[in-house]
């Protein structure tokens, strides 16, 4: 019998080719397959008789194949397979294109289940491309909540589903790692039960219970990790950084006044910096709320105490942006800044430099402030006396990475994490039990709200007119495209096609830039520069512009296929515009007609603040979310985004209880191992 560790090639029918394809998804052992959870479900649980079929309804029917045959269409290179299915109430036609092999596997007389949607085509009523399976082997692909798995173009859903159905008995071998007291007290099912039901739930209720368990696990692991981290850090000593009076001069030199929230946040940070214990604070603020200057003030105080500061950004583009903003801010104050990323290095006091020179000067203490990407986390980066670390978009770094830069120093640096992810307070407390939190809720004065509009297919022309007008005024326009095919993982094809279409058909006279993740660092920089300086005032991009990117001239954000993005992402995109006093727009292009999809997009038109949207998301969970039709995407967690307030509270209570029983977690080795392996959403 297979064990959870067995290699998948030990399964009958899994040869080298298939094994390779599975390995691409990280599926190597039985255990991987068992933990390969559906990304969504299709509800084919509704079983109806043929005479009750209604156009447009998603259903399963059960009947006998009367006829089945395949013919070739002369018009195109196409084969058409047609079947007539009969039950005691009537019969219905089913059609498939280019699946001639069906005729070999499904013979007349076979009892089958068909799952699909009845369409009214030009040849009358028929089921188009229904999923078909013989009743004898039934109940996997039809007649139920059918799991849809993350996959690649080389692996069909049917194949993955069949494989998982075959290893399901092995689920019994999964060991429970949560203490029974916890399961009982919080009313949680056993893990193996939950795993089974996640794959093949027999009802939404069952799925709900299973989801609650795995969500609990995910949150608990993160929560315990943060509690342990806090425990360790509380023992550390830091060098106190007193308030530098010259901060006031610096603040006065800013071209604008700090907002109240910026002042409060800066004050909370400065108070923390003055302590013997390292600061461990999260600065939460919507995109454009002005976190950078607050971080800049903290760095300034640190440097004035003759300590070094480091700012860590998740991408090259963001690091460069901070480099420009912050060196400008600090220019009058004789502070030496450096930039260090994989592709670039620079210092404020020399015309050119190299990475190894920057590292040397960091070590000797000549450089006061370094701004960089993951490159800063490398072991050969050493500081003379690091006093403060700022981590921008902190959720893009794992707890380990955050700790790596702090660890192994005689005196622990203070830590300021920043995030634009507007997490409701209850979720933040659970995830970041290890951090104190400051909020910047209000936007800088003079900001105009961003007019957000839903654009239906018939209204495109007016949207394009608006774009032309804005460009004539010297403004810039972002256009974001979703992935069009699952195989187009980087969206290269989607943006290339759209850019060509717009260039040729809609805006022939305007230069349109193209940005996607396959471009090299320098190419990206060039594309962004052309966009910023207006040489190509329209930029068609994949979702990589989601992070950072400050182009004050940008006044329109167009999002194609808006219904395909979570509210979190949409909100991040929108934050790319409205960064100046010019009025700006966010145009959500959609052909969605489902009430749920439209309600979500309408929330975008109603709420400007990310916190409001995140709360909306948390409060508006429908069964559709459970089936995974809509991703929310605030945090890129596997399950936890669907957590409700009750569960969040439960997790914190359980965390407290476990830590009180054993604050090393050694009592529960499997749990302990899981917690230590947890790397809260690295990307
Ligand atoms: P984020 O919080 O998204 O990192 P930034 O720090 O990039 O936001 O700030 C966005 C823009 O707002 C920048 O161009 C910055 O110069 C400007 N800004 C920051 N604070 C203020 C303020 N108090 N008043 C006016 N503009 C501000
Ligand atoms: Mg920022």
Summarize the structure in words:
- This is ATP-dependent DNA helicase RecG.
- The protein is of the alpha/beta class and 683 residues long.
- Among the domains are: 46-143, OB fold (Dihydrolipoamide Acetyltransferase, E2P) (Beta Barrel); 240-440, Rossmann fold, CATH 3.40.50; 451-607, 3-Layer(aba) Sandwich (Rossmann fold).
- The strands form four sheets. Strands 12-11-13-10-14-15-9-16 form an eight-stranded mixed beta sheet, with helices on both faces.
- The longest helix is centred in the first third of the chain and has 30 residues, at 204-233.
- It is globular.
- The relative contact order is 0.10.
- The mean pLDDT is 88.
Question: What's this, in brief?
Answer:
36% of the residues lie in helices and 19% in strands.
Sheet-strand content, in percent, reads 15-25%
* Helix count, DSSP H or I runs of 4 or more residues: 23
Structural class: alpha/beta
> Tally of extended strands?
22
Rg on CA atoms, Å:
28 Å
Low-confidence sequence ranges: none
What does the largest sheet look like? 8 strands, mixed
Distance between the termini: 36 Å
Any key phrases for this structure?
alpha/beta; Rossmann fold; eight-stranded mixed sheet; six-stranded parallel sheet; 23 helices; 22 strands; 19% strand; globular; binds adenosine-5'-diphosphate; binds magnesium ion; DEAD/DEAH_box_helicase_dom; P-loop_NTPase
């Amino acid at each position: 019998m297979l064990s959870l560790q067995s290699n998948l090639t030990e399964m009958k029918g899994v040869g080298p080719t298939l094994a390779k394809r599975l390995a691409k998804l990280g599926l190597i052992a039985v255990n991987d397959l068992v933990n390969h959870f559906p990304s969504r479900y299709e509800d084919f649980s509704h079983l109806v008789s043929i005479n009750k079929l209604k156009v447009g309804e998603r259903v399963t029917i059960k009947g006998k194949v009367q006829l089945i045959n395949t013919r070739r269409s002369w018009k195109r290179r196409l084969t058409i397979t047609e079947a007539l299915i009969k039950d005691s109430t009537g019969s219905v036609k089913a059609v498939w294109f280019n699946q001639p092999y069906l005729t070999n596997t499904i013979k007349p007389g076979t009892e089958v289940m068909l799952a699909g949607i009845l369409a009214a085509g030009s040849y009358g009523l028929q089921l188009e491309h229904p999923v078909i399976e013989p009743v004898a082997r039934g109940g996997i692909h039809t007649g139920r909540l059918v799991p849809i798995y993350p996959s690649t173009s080389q692996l069909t859903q049917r194949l993955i589903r069949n494989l998982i159905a075959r290893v399901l008995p092995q689920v019994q071998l999964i060991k429970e790692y949560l203490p029974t007291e916890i399961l009982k007290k919080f009313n949680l099912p056993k893990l193996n039960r939950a795993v089974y039901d996640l794959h093949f739930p027999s009802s939404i209720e069952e799925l709900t219970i299973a989801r609650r368990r795995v969500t609990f696990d995910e949150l608990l692991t993160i929560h315990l990790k943060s509690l342990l981290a806090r425990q360790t850090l509380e023992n550390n000593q830091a060098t106190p950084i007193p308030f530098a009076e010259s901060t006031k001069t610096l603040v006065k030199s800013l071209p604008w006044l700090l907002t109240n929230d910026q002042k409060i946040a800066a004050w909370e940070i400065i108070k923390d910096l003055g302590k013997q214990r390292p600061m461990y604070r999260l600065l939460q603020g919507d995109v454009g709320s002005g976190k950078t200057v607050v971080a800049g003030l903290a760095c300034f105080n640190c440097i004035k105490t003759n300590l070094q500061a480091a700012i860590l950004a998740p991408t090259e583009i963001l690091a460069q942006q901070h480099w420009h903003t912050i060196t400008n801010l600090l220019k009058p104050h004789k502070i030496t800044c450096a930039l260090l990323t994989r592709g670039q290095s620079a210092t404020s006091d020399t015309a050119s430099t190299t990475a190894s020179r920057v590292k040397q000067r960091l070590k000797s203490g000549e450089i006061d402030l370094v701004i960089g990407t993951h490159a800063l986390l490398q072991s050969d980066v050493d500081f003379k006396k690091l006093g403060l670390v700022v981590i921008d978009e902190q959720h893009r770094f794992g707890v380990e990475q955050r700790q790596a830069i702090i660890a192994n120093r005689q005196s622990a640096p203070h830590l300021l994490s920043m995030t634009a992810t507007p997490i409701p307070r209850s979720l933040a407390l659970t995830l970041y039990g290890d951090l104190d939190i400051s909020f910047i809720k209000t936007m800088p004065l003079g900001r105009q709200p961003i007019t957000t509009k839903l654009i239906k297919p018939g209204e495109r022309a007016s949207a394009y007119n608006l774009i032309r007008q804005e460009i004539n005024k010297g403004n810039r326009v972002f256009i974001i495209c979703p992935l069009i095919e699952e195989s187009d993982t980087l969206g290269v094809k989607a943006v290339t096609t759209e850019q060509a279409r717009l260039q040729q058909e809609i805006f022939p006279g305007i230069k349109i830039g193209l940005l996607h993740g396959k471009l090299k660092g320098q190419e990206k920089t060039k594309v962004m520069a052309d966009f910023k300086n207006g040489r190509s005032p329209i930029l068609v991009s994949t979702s990589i512009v989601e992070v950072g990117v400050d182009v004050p001239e940008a006044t329109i954000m167009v999002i194609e296929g808006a219904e395909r993005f979570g509210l979190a992402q949409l909100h991040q995109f929108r934050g790319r515009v409205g960064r100046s006093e010019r009025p700006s727009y966010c145009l959500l292009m959609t052909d969605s007609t489902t009430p749920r999809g439209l309600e979500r997009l309408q929330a975008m038109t109603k709420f400007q603040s990310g916190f409001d949207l995140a709360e909306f998301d948390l409060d508006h969970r429908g069964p559709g979310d459970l089936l995974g039709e809509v991703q929310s995407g605030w945090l890129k967690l596997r399950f936890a985004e669907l957590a409700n307030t009750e569960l969040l509270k439960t997790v914190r209570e359980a965390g407290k209880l476990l830590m009180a029983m054993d604050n090393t977690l050694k009592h529960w080795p499997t749990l302990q191992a899981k917690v230590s392996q947890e790397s809260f959403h690295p990307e």
